[in-house]
Amino acid sequence: MSGEVMLTLGVSGHSCADPRHLGLDAGAAMSFPAGWALIEHPVQGAILFDCGYGPQARLAMRRGLRWLYRRVIHACSAPHTDAAALLQRRGLARDEVRMVVLSHFHPDHIGGLGQFPRARFVAHADAWRQVEDSGWFGLLHAQIWKELLPADFVARLQLLDERGRRGLDGDLATLGGEGWDLFGDGSLFALPLPGHARGQIGLALRTHDGERAILAADAFWRREQLDLGRDLPWLTRLVAMDDATAYRETLRRLTRFRDTHPGAWLIPAHCAQTLAEWRQRHPSAVLEAEAGERGG
Ligand SMILES: [Zn+2]
Ligand SMILES: [Zn+2]
Question: Structurally, what CATH architecture does the domain formed by 4-18+27-283 represent?
Fold first, then answer.
């Protein structure tokens, strides 16, 4: 049916962090899956929302400051956990991926882009402008690793800007603001979720079995953050935030949506608990290597 899609959540890599870095109570280090999503559209075919770590990210993390990044957040991934390998298991060849929507340009979201040679890319104009305009230090601070982008990235890139943007309606009106109806059939709405990264976007969709889902990228990391509503520690704001005020406003909009739509799925990229619940509800709609075969 037009306007409805199949949603499968994927995991390509993991990292770890102290819960206090997210303003949560002290406890054991938390594991964060590097999540992405496969969206199967009846007309447009296979679309990815991000793609986790991948071969290019692994290569980059062997040296210098990228190596330090890997050590600090304990980032790990292995070839069999890459998005292309997981899709292959599911019977989907990498050439069949028609589009990758990029939430933002951090390595845990774009590290596998090079695996999809036939895909067009979609990103917010503000996010791309930062990639283009920033110098060495700006890119380092924004955690943008340009070497992860395929050589022909620009030729395959479509930017979301003022054109085609329109007010959100229906249940999405609760979120306020505007978005982009990517295919003009109401199946996929790109939503601005600024704060964590410049020009970050999420996706709102409705699945063929009637689930409303919002893929929220890194608008928040763990669902407890919505419940607690605590400010992030200063260090996290310094290293993981483009605009702390916009981050809080984005979180407020998403919390309001969750509170008024209790049946909807709010799915951030790295929340293990949300992923576990999705798996319980839709066991065949998760692509992830077994726990014992994650690799390092
Ligand atoms: Zn990020
Ligand atoms: Zn992330």
Answer: 4-Layer Sandwich (3.60)
Contact 204, 213 (CB under 8 A): yes
pLDDT digit string, tens, across residues 65-117: 888 788 788 888 899 999 999 999 999 999 999 999 999 999 999 999 999 99
Q: Where are the domains of the chain?
A: 4-18+27-283
Tokens of 173: 């009106």
Give this prediction's pTM: 0.94
User: How many A from CA of 196 to the centre of ligand 1?
Assistant: 7
Residues within 5 Å of ion ligand 2 by Cβ?
108, 218
CA of 240 to the centre of ligand 2 (A): 10
Question: pLDDT tens digit string along 167-188?
Answer: 998 999 999 889 999 999 999 9
Distance CA 205, CA 241 (A): 26
Residue 220 near residue 17, CB atoms below 8 Å:
no
Whose atoms come closest to the Cα of 105: which ligand? 1
Residue 171 CA to ligand 1 centre (angstroms):
27
